[in-house]
Each structure stands twice: as structure tokens, then as C-alpha cells.
Design brief:
Length: about 220
């Protein structure tokens, strides 16, 4: 597994992540969703540099020229529900991509102190030989992302997988690195936060991305 951390090179991404985190700005759910979408667009652009390209002849009103265009088949995969705005950002750029959706959630014990990761939904095309881009706004322990990835392998073996998380904990990033070290995967992160609470929420993090985007759930 390779790892790329975009915040290591300061860019416009810093502002969008800062607004996601800001306790005052994030109260505007429409702006929160839009910032997450714009972050998806930035990651999509960076990932596009890693794809395969070939020359295609393009006819313009005044002539013919060769243009380098990607020939990779792409599947965009999202962990529901928090990942939907991020997914839309990717889809804005990879507008010919196929799409997959995974339901993964924490199943807490009665005292709400421990949890297991459960998956109850998978909708995906074949990913055999394709570029898989699997995304979730937050990477806390890494358990749900690992489960989502392994679930998708039921649909084939991808050519290469890109895992995208705008905000990650150091523990989660290290966990995926250990579990998937031999896989053809690139882990793309926006920023890495140092800690987790005793209930495995990222610190300083931003809160619950799904609730901030779509409203609180029961």
C-alpha cells in the first residue's frame, strides 16, 4: 500500500477542510455538503494523474489533433450515508464512472462502550480489472473501511484501488497500512489527526459527518 497525504503540500484543500471542522461554519449543512463535494473534486483531480492514458484523435472545427485521454474503467464506491457528498464530487469529474454503495455501521453494545462493524447493504457492478475508488469522509479505527473493501472484492479483483479519506486518525491509517500492506492500493488522506476518544471518535476531528451533512439520526 502506498500513502499520499495532500495537506503535506498546502493548497485550497486546507480551507475546505478547515471549514468542515469549524464549529460555527459547519452548522450550515448546505455549505458542509458543498465543501465535502469540493474536496472530492480535488482528490479526483489528483487521482486522475495516476491513470493510464492513450492518444485519441479529436476533430475540431479547424482540424485534427491528438489528445491524451484516460482509458481506465472506474468504479466509485461510497460508504453510506456520510460519503454521499464526497462521492458527488468525484462523480462531477469522473462522470462516466460506474458506482457502488456499501452500508457499514457501528453496532454498539447495550452500554454503548464497545462496538462491532456491521454491513447490511452492497450495490456494486463488477470491479474486475477496473480502477476502484473507495471513499469515506472519516477514517477512525479503519475497521469499517476494511470491511467495505473486502465486501467489494465479492465483485471481482480491481486493477488498482484508491482509498480516500479527507480526515483520518493516525491509528486508522496505521491499521489499514498493516492490514493491506501487500495490496495494490493507494491510501489518499487529507489530514491525519493524532487521537481517538475512548469511543473511537477522531480528535480533533469534526464530529459526525453524516449528521452534519443530512441531519441527526435516531
Amino acid at each position: 500500500m502506498q500513502q499520499r497525504i495532500l495537506s503535506e503540500t498546502p493548497s485550497l484543500l486546507n480551507r475546505f477542510i478547515a471549514e468542515l471542522r469549524n464549529i460555527h461554519i459547519q452548522k450550515d449543512s448546505m455549505r458542509f455538503r458543498r465543501n465535502m463535494e469540493r474536496i472530492g473534486e480535488i482528490f479526483a483531480y489528483e487521482i486522475s494523474k495516476t491513470l493510464n492514458y492513450k492518444e485519441v484523435k479529436i476533430e475540431t472545427p479547424l482540424g485534427i489533433l491528438g489528445q491524451q485521454l484516460s482509458d481506465n474503467a472506474i468504479v466509485l464506491a461510497t460508504v453510506l450515508r456520510a460519503g454521499l457528498p464526497l462521492h458527488q464530487g468525484f462523480l462531477n469529474y469522473f462522470d462516466r464512472a460506474e458506482n457502488a454503495f456499501i452500508g457499514a455501521y457501528r453496532q454498539y453494545t447495550a452500554d454503548h462502550q464497545k462496538f462491532d462493524i456491521q454491513s447490511d447493504y452492497l450495490s456494486s457492478p463488477s470491479i474486475e480489472g477496473k480502477v476502484l475508488i473507495l471513499m469515506d469522509p472519516m477514517l477512525a479505527t479503519g475497521s469499517s473501511m476494511l470491511l467495505a473493501y473486502k465486501s467489494l472484492l465479492q465483485r471481482g479483483q480491481p486493477l488498482h484501488t484508491h482509498i480516500v479519506c479527507p480526515i483520518a486518525s493516525r491509528k486508522g491509517a496505521d491499521y489499514l497500512q498493516a492490514q493491506l500492506s501487500e495490496e495494490e492500493i493507494t491510501l489518499w488522506l487529507g489530514e491525519i489527526d493524532p487521537g481517538l476518544t475512548d469511543k473511537s471518535y477522531i480528535v480533533p476531528g469534526l464530529g459526525d459527518a453524516g449528521d452534519l451533512a443530512f441531519g441527526c439520526k435516531l
